[in-house]
Amino acid sequence: MADQSARGESGSTGDIFRDKVVFITGAARGQGRAHAVRFAEEGADVIAVDLCDQLDSVAYPMATPEDLDETVTLVEKTGRRIVAERGDVRDRERLAEVVARGVAEFGRLDFVIANAGILPAAGEQAHDITAFTDAIGVMLNGVYFTIEAALPTMLRNPDGGAIVITSSAAGFKSVSTDLDSMSHGAAGYTAAKHGVVGLMRHFATSLAEKNIRVNSVHPGGVATPMVLNEAMAGFVAEHPSFGESQRPLLTGPMMEAEDVSETMLYLCGPAGRHLTGVALPLDAGLTLK
Ligand SMILES: NC(=O)c1ccc[n+]([C@@H]2O[C@H](COP(=O)([O-])OP(=O)(O)OC[C@H]3O[C@@H](n4cnc5c(N)ncnc54)[C@H](O)[C@@H]3O)[C@@H](O)[C@H]2O)c1
């Protein structure tokens, strides 16, 4: 099992985040859910938000309210608490409400994982300009709004905290590989994932005096519904150069969401205490190509 191999044979968990609180966007499924469960296993309470709705620019099925309910069930199984709300990361006021509800419940906020995302690069709708504005809205504006919503509470922490932005290998190289695979959605995805590196450096520099560390993670392909779906399979079949550009150097199995969670744990936990301002590739060598 992927999570067991990442944690060693025992699959054991610890308590490095006992009595800490993490705010995770896009937590209904995929990587966001895996991070919520893994942080809870380490003792953290979770504030979770997810759109749980479909955007017209996205060609694959997005998360549902039932997905978010499942995240709640899985976190509660660990014995930790979770405040989970539906909300759009493009909506500043809604994010502030969600954070306020969570902080009212748990009394503090230590970590932010700005993870919510869409990949509007496949299907006819990728050529609608909305695919560009949605990508920027969710993955650049949304990341900024997420951090902004959390900051007033985090700044009260005497012992600081940590923020991790989920970028992508597309934060280092283009999603589109040629004129044929070019689209508004691919442009928006690439621009947003590059753009958050700027936000990461902005916040890492600005928040260092409060001992709040800020880093970005840049995964290659991760086995989640964002990429394992009919629309993306069709896109890869139509654009073999895209498929080739996404093939990592390492030849092992595709990365699982739980593998990314281990990196989140490292960046937020004591082992990462000297790390800030780092754009960390987690891509099995993909961006070396
Ligand atoms: N899967 C991959 O191969 C891959 C690779 C690199 C980076 N990423 C990034 O990882 C992050 C997580 O993606 P995933 O792979 O878990 O995909 P996913 O589609 O399973 O999960 C993304 C979650 O974000 C939520 N979301 C989307 N728009 C939202 C909005 N406006 N407000 C609130 N929530 C919203 C979705 O509902 C969904 O639950 C994304 O930022 C994605 O761009 C994914």
Radius of gyration: 18 Å
CATH homologous superfamily assignment: NAD(P)-binding Rossmann-like Domain
The amount of helix comes to 40-55%
Compute the number of structural domains. Answer: 1
Give the class-level CATH name.
Answer: Alpha Beta
Shape: globular
Supply the CATH architecture: 3-Layer(aba) Sandwich
Q: Give the distance, in angstroms, between the N- and C-terminal Cα atoms.
A: 28 Å
Enumerate the distinct ligands: nicotinamide-adenine-dinucleotide
Largest sheet: 7 strands, parallel
Structural class: alpha/beta
Mean pLDDT: 94
Stated plainly, the CATH topology is called Rossmann fold
SSE arrangement, N to C: HEHEHEHEHEHEHHHE
Biggest sheet, strands in spatial order?
3-2-1-4-5-6-7
In terms of DSSP E residues, the strand content is: 5-15%
Number of helices: 9
- How many beta-strand elements? 7
Regions with little confidence, pLDDT below 50 for 5+ residues: 1-11
Walk me through the structure.
It is a single chain. With 289 residues, the chain is an alpha/beta fold. It has one domain (15-281): NAD(P)-binding Rossmann-like Domain (Rossmann fold, 3-Layer(aba) Sandwich). Helix content is 43%, strand content 13%. It is built from 9 helices and 7 strands, in the order H-E-H-E-H-E-H-E-H-E-H-E-H-H-H-E. The protein has helices at 2-7, 30-41, 65-77, 92-106, 129-154, 184-207, 230-238, 240-245, 257-268, and strands at 21-25, 45-50, 82-86, 111-114, 161-166, 212-219, 279-282. Strands 3-2-1-4-5-6-7 form a 7-stranded parallel sheet, sandwiched between helices. Helix 5 links the parallel strand 4 (111-114) and strand 5. Helix 2 (30-41) packs across helix 9, helix 4 (92-106) runs parallel beside helix 5 and helix 5 (129-154) packs parallel to helix 6. The longest helix has 26 residues, at 129-154. The protein is globular and about 50 Å long. The structure holds nicotinamide-adenine-dinucleotide. Residues 25-26, 28-32, 50-51, 62-63, 88-90, 115-118, 138-139, 142, 166, 168, 219, 221-222, 224-227 line the site of nicotinamide-adenine-dinucleotide.
